[in-house]
Amino acid sequence: MPESSTVTTELIAARERLFALLDRFDQAKVLVVGDLALDEFLTGQVERLSREAPVLILHHENTRQIPGGGANAVYNLAKLGAQVKVAGLVGKDPQGEALRSIFEAAGIDTGGIFMAAERPTVTKTRIAGHARQSVTQQIVRVDRTSEQLPDQELQMQLAEYVQSEIATSDAVVCSDYGDGVLMPSVISVALSHSRAVVDAQKGLERYAGATLFTPNLPEAEQAVGYAISDFQSLVKAGQDLLKLTQAQHILITRGEEGMSLFERSGEVRHLPAFNYTDVFDVTGAGDTVVATLTLSLCAGASLWEAAALGNLAASIVVRQFGTATTTATEIKEALQMLLDEAT
């Protein structure tokens, strides 16, 4: 694997091109087909133990709602400056209304969000508490999900919407969290785009022929069926994933170990993590990588350039608690700082 100094040297050589790519992010038109979710963070101060049961009583202080699941990929793309359309489902509930409102405030086209009245909006509510002068800690998480798949009519509506937007989109992102939006009919239409990026937790073979897959290490291990414990098993996994998915490219994100790129030509490239000392929370970092990668490719980047910018974007959001996003301006600043330190 190349030393980080080698990668930094390559970044220095590509300085002007990388900045130019970031400047073109706002020209990209991206369609995201995904399992939309809402993340709620409810916090309060612990007052006392309940008389009814041995549980804490919290005095509510605030509730924060942000896009989660596939909705986080949508939100990341919008914050990076892209023109974004989204295809997905929400329930007939306040959480669905909240998610629509967040999207609309960010300038996201919600014309492809359909209401599934029989299903709740996927919502993950994290309840956290603190005593006076103490750190806030998560106490419990409450999930609202549905085991019921969308009915055939909804699946058809989603597929028809995706089909109608293919020609005017520079890329299609499939963000699959296993909540039922990405059924075979929808996947088939999404993969008809020449630049289809897949971020799926499992069932990668269902997206055979997509342009690019971005599994993290556990997802890659699950797909190939064995542990990735060293350089040899990593390379083998990359090759096996290319065969399994028939993809043009595989990018395995490996946390503090960086990223590894695998091409159908047999070329393998590794990028070290640009930040592994100030990591506070990796939640949602994969969505940031996918969004940055996609916009970079839309702007004309090579896969290595796109991965480098995605890696840099991830190094920004992991410094923040909770699901976070970044902007093209922040990535420019981080790139400039990295280059300044290297020279």
Please tell me about this protein's structure.
There is one protein chain. The strands form two sheets. The protein has a nine-stranded mixed beta sheet with strand order 5-4-1-8-9-10-11-12-13, sandwiched between helices. A four-stranded mixed beta sheet has the order 3-2-6-7. Helices cover 38% and strands 27% of the residues. With 343 residues, it is α/β, with parallel strands linked by helices. It has one domain (4-37, 68-120, 149-342): UDP-N-acetylmuramoyl-L-alanine:D-glutamate ligase, CATH 3.40.1190.20. A hairpin with a 5-residue loop joins strand 11 and strand 12 (259-263). The mean pLDDT is 89.
Q: How many domains in all? A: 1
Radius of gyration: 20 Å
Compute the separation of the termini in Å.
22 Å
> What is the 3D shape?
globular
Helical content stands at: 25-40%
Q: What is the CATH architecture annotation?
A: 3-Layer(aba) Sandwich
CATH fold naming = UDP-N-acetylmuramoyl-L-alanine:D-glutamate ligase
Cross-sheet strand order for the largest sheet: 5-4-1-8-9-10-11-12-13
Q: How many strands? A: 13
